[in-house]
């Protein structure tokens, strides 16, 4: 037993010379950074098993590969994290004459004792792979999603939704890639020849079907627990519930980004509107990442509004909490990396588009002045000044952040232009498409900022009639799929091709609706392309 566990700092805080909050059973600072808290009692360190007597004195054994602990390496050696559960859950059985095996069994972190092997495997995948997808810079103390891992033992609802996300991600990684070539594009390319690119599986694995079943099972358990939590909101940590709902949204995006996400986004927005300021004695590890959770929910809300026809969407910028400040605090490391000012303009354009959808075409000119104001505001946004003043953003990413934001700026202008089929004489949408292609050419697919490029790529691809640009959009999304195998990337390709088909085959207004944005909205689907 620990002696007076709260009377001195935990071992991690003492080693790093930081002020410990001395919480029991574990330090909240360790939980926040995703570290395993080493506690307050006597610390025993295994020093590679060097023998101190006998024939083996001064010698040791190499640790078998399948018993090595999973180590998260970082640039900061002093803040590296070690996850003590093994990722290799099916190690080869050692020979009975191999005397090393009994000596090197990696102890299971008490945090994960009692969990079955699949759960440990999925938590490992969440920690090593999926967490990295959710941020731009996956460095110590900068990825709030890692702090959810040690918290999930105390919250089964959080454990199940994390397992569901990880299992669905493994399943998604095993899906076949999409066909890169479009018949209408190939027919217009020089010499009418197309390179046959086989549709292949990115990660072949026999466990894909099993992972899908595990994801659905964990999702069902999470839904049941979420229903119970919502029925008892006064006694439930609302920050926990909003976090779980965000992970539900991510789960739907990993799956496909179609339809099911909307109920979760609307539920999250209602809960966010009821959030209250922190009290000093009420801050929990989950509450500490509230800004990121809230920011991602709000961004999904706006992006989901772009292709959804609804006049009932809540205006996030009219909520009683300071939404703009929350969004700006999260700009540096949100994987969506959408400038707050442009996000506000985009939401106003979504509102305008929904109004235009309900009006006869003869009354649309009444909205032109408002669309013109939004267009001017988007064009006036100073991208370079914004990128140079993003709070907490590393300076080495500033040039690429500028290119990414300029792509978003041009995409927002295209959306405003198409929201009411508005054709200003001084704007050429094909020039905007060219600008998007130019700026995204600076963003290598392996650059973490590439995760923020799917929406402008989709907008450029859906807008253009140029077959070469259409092929570029297909290629760009395919490259993104290779580094971000989330289902919504494939949905973006599907919806983009749908926009082309509606425009190319009909040669007239679809159902009396003009412009590809309104045509897609008229289909009544709910797509979320992030």
Can you count the beta strands?
Answer: 2
Quote the average pLDDT: 79
Order of helices and strands: HHEEHHHHHHHHHHHHHHHHHH
The strand line-up of the biggest sheet is 1-2
Low-confidence stretches: 1-5, 61-106, 183-206
> What's the number of helices?
20
The share of residues in extended strands comes to under 5%
Oligomer: single chain
Structural class: mainly alpha
CA gyration radius, whole angstroms:
26 Å
CA-CA gap between termini? 49 Å
**Helicity level:** 40-55%
Q: Describe the biggest sheet? A: 2 strands, antiparallel
Protein name: Zn(2)-C6 fungal-type domain-containing protein
Domain Zn(2)-C6 fungal-type: 9-37
Keywords: DNA-binding, Nucleus, Transcription, Transcription regulation
GO molecular function, one term: zinc ion binding
Q: Your description of this structure?
A:
Its main location: nucleus. Keywords: DNA-binding, Nucleus, Transcription, Transcription regulation. GO terms for molecular function: DNA-binding transcription factor activity, RNA polymerase II-specific; transcription cis-regulatory region binding; zinc ion binding. With 530 residues, the protein is mainly alpha-helical. Among the domains are: 1-60, CD2-Gal4 (Irregular), CATH 4.10.240; 221-522. The chain is built from 20 helices and two strands. The chain has a two-stranded antiparallel ribbon with strand order 1-2. A hairpin with an 8-residue loop joins β1 (70-72) and β2. α8 (238-255) packs across α10 (290-305) and α16 runs antiparallel to α17. The two termini are 49 Å apart. The relative contact order is 0.08. The model is unreliable at 1-5, 61-106 and 183-206 (pLDDT under 50).
